[in-house]
Write a structure and sequence with these properties.
eleven-stranded mixed sheet; D-Maltodextrin-Binding Protein, domain 2; 10 helices; single chain
Length: about 300
C-alpha cells in the first residue's frame, strides 16, 4: 500500500529513534530514544558510495517513517523499538554510508512536508513512487508492491477484485493509494450504475485492520505485504484470508529532496549493492514478504 499523495497521520508528534537491529511484534508507540554505533561500510561497496559531506559531518541519517505499517514499519513489543523491512533497509543503508540511523516517527499525511522542511534527510515508509509525488521529491525505488484485500475466513462475500467490492463496506487508511484505488473504482461503478463501495477511512492502517477484526466491515484494503503479515500472525489463524492476488504492483521508493542529488546517488549505490549481495532479498524473506512483493533485480 502505502499510498498516494501521502499516508495518513499515524501518531501526533514525531518520536526519534536511533535503531540498530529489529525484532518482533508491534504495539502502540511510546516516546524513547536509543543510540547505536554504525560499523564502517563494507569494503565491497565503499568504493561505489560517495557519502555527502553534510551527512559525514552529522554522523547520521534521519529517516521520516510512519511507524504503523507492519511488516514494513511497526513497533516491537516494548512499544519503543521501530522494526520492519523498511527499518532494516534504512539501517543497512546507514551502515554502508558509515553513519547511524535515526527514525523520526512522522504521520504519513505530513511526511513529504516534513522532508522538504528538512526535519529528516530521507523518507522510507512503504511509499509508492507516483507521478504526483515525483513532482515534489525524487525517489530511489527498491521494491514493487501491489495492493491487497483481506477478508473474513471463507471469503463469504466472494471478494477477489476491486470490482467485487461493489456494495461492500471496506476499511482503508487515509491518504493512501489504496484509498485512491477505491475512489477510482467507485467512479467506474457509478458510470456503470452499480452499487458503490462504502469506504471507511482511518488515520492508521492498524485501525483500519481492527474494523475487519471486529466484524464491522466486509474487507480491509492495504498493501499486499501488510495483508500477508496480518493473515500470517498466529493469533489470526483461521480468522482471515487474502482475497485474490496482489493488484497492480508499482514501485515503492526512498524519497529524497530534489536538491540532494549527492545523497540520492549515495542511496542508489547502496541499494544497488544490497541487491548485488542479496541483502534486499534476505530482508524481504525475513519479514515474510517473499510472495507479496516484486524484486526490482
Amino acid at each position: 500500500m502505502r499510498s498516494s499523495p501521502w499516508r495518513a497521520a499515524a501518531v501526533a508528534g514525531a518520536l526519534l529513534f536511533i535503531v540498530g537491529a529489529c525484532s518482533s511484534s508491534g504495539s502502540t508507540p511510546a516516546p524513547s530514544a536509543a543510540a547505536s554505533a554504525a560499523p564502517a561500510p563494507p569494503a565491497a561497496s565503499a568504493a561505489a558510495i560517495v557519502v555527502p559531506d553534510n551527512i559525514k559531518a552529522a554522523g547520521k541519517l534521519v529517516w521520516c517513517v510512519d511507524v504503523s505499517y507492519p511488516p514494513e514499519e511497526f513497533y516491537a513489543a516494548d512499544g519503543t523499538t521501530a522494526q520492519g523491512s523498511d527499518v532494516d533497509i534504512a539501517t543497512e543503508i546507514g551502515k554502508r554510508l558509515g553513519v547511524t540511523t535515526e527514525i523520526d516517527n512522522t504521520g504519513f499525511d505530513g511526511i513529504i512536508p516534513a522532508l522538504t522542511a528538512k526535519k529528516c534527510d530521507l523518507i522510507i515508509s512503504g511509499m509508492n513512487d507516483t507521478p504526483e509525488r515525483a513532482k515534489q521529491v525524487d525517489f530511489v525505488d527498491y521494491l514493487k508492491v501491489g495492493q491487497g484485500i483481506l477478508v473474513p475466513a471463507g471469503n463469504p462475500k466472494n471478494i477477489k477484485t476491486l470490482e467485487n467490492l461493489s456494495g461492500k463496506t471496506v476499511a482503508v487508511q487515509l491518504g493512501t493509494t489504496n484509498k485512491d484505488a477505491l475512489d477510482a473504482e467507485n467512479v467506474t461503478l457509478k458510470a456503470a450504475n452499480k452499487p458503490l463501495i462504502e469506504i471507511q477511512t482511518f488515520q492508521q492502517d492498524t485501525d483500519a485492520f481492527q474494523q475487519l477484526a471486529l466484524g464491522r466491515v466486509d474487507a480491509f484494503s492495504t498493501d499486499s505485504p501488510v495483508v500477508a503479515f496480518y493473515n500470517a500472525k498466529p493469533e489470526n489463524a483461521g480468522k482471515f484470508e487474502v482475497a485474490g492476488t496482489p493488484i497492480a504492483p508499482i514501485p515503492i521508493g526512498i524519497a529524497v529532496r530534489k536538491e540532494d542529488t549527492a545523497l540520492k546517488a549515495a542511496v542508489t549505490a547502496a541499494i544497488d549493492a544490497m541487491y548485488a549481495d542479496g541483502t534486499i532479498k534476505s530482508i524481504v524473506d525475513k519479514w515474510g514478504m517473499t510472495d507479496a512483493v516484486v524484486l526490482l533485480k
